[in-house]
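To the team - FE2/S2 (inorganic) cluster complex, inputs and output below.
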Amino acid sequence: MGEYRKVGTTSDVPPGQKKVFQVAGKDVAVFNAEGKFYALENTCPHAGGPLGEGMFSGTVITCPWHGFQFNVTTGGHVLGRGLKVSCFPIKVQGNDILIEAG
Ligand code: FES
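Output:
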C-alpha cells in the first residue's frame, strides 16, 4: 500500500477544471467534477494520449488524440469499449489534495 501524498490545493483545480500532477514518478490527472475530485492516470489506454490535455465536461474527459471519452468517476470508457483508465485514491484534507499513487 502506498501512502497519500499532497499534490496541491483545491484552488489549483477549480470546479470543472483539471490539472496534471507528478506523484511518485507518475503523471496523474486530477479532475474537479462539480466539487468532487478524481485522479486518473494521465495516459489514455487507447494509444497513450495525454488525457489531462483533453476537453473536460461534466464527468467526461475526451482524449485529445483520437477523441475516446472516459468517465472520470470510474475511469471507464463512456461507450463501454472495455478500455479503462487507472484511477488513484484521492482525498481532500482541509484545502490539500492528497493522492495515493504507490
Ligand atoms: S490515444 Fe486516446 S483516443 Fe487514442
